[in-house]
């Protein structure tokens, strides 16, 4: 993943300064999108992943730095691969749109 000066945090609109920041934001956007697609509330999803709701809020906001074990639990609770959970959010969103169009067509 290449860093670009124009990439900004979607919430604070501040520049993302590291690859770790980009991964955290992508993880958060993917968790939010997949949780909503599964029609899960934050409360229910936090219970399924065995994490606290405040921690889930930080993950979805891109401000948490979860351990690998937590990321694995998130993927398991969402029934997705680690790759799908960690891929850049734009690519994951495009993939979801393509899959949706394929089901409709």
UniProtKB/TrEMBL annotation:
Pfam families: HTH_3. Keywords: DNA-binding. Residues 31-85 form the HTH cro/C1-type domain. InterPro entries: Cro/C1-type_HTH, Lambda_DNA-bd_dom_sf, TransReg_Diox_bact_type. This is Helix-turn-helix transcriptional regulator. It comes from Gordonibacter faecis.
């Amino acid at each position: 993943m290449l860093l670009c000066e124009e990439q900004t945090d979607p919430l604070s609109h501040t520049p993302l300064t590291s690859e770790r920041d980009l991964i955290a934001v992508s993880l958060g956007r993917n968790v939010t999108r997949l949780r909503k697609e599964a029609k899960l509330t934050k409360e229910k999803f936090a219970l399924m992943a065995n994490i606290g709701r405040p921690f889930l809020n930080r993950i979805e906001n891109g401000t948490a730095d979860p351990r690998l074990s937590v990321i694995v639990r998130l993927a398991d609770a969402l029934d997705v691969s680690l790759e799908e959970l960690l891929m850049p959010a734009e690519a994951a969103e495009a993939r979801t749109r393509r899959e949706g169009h394929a089901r409709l067509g």
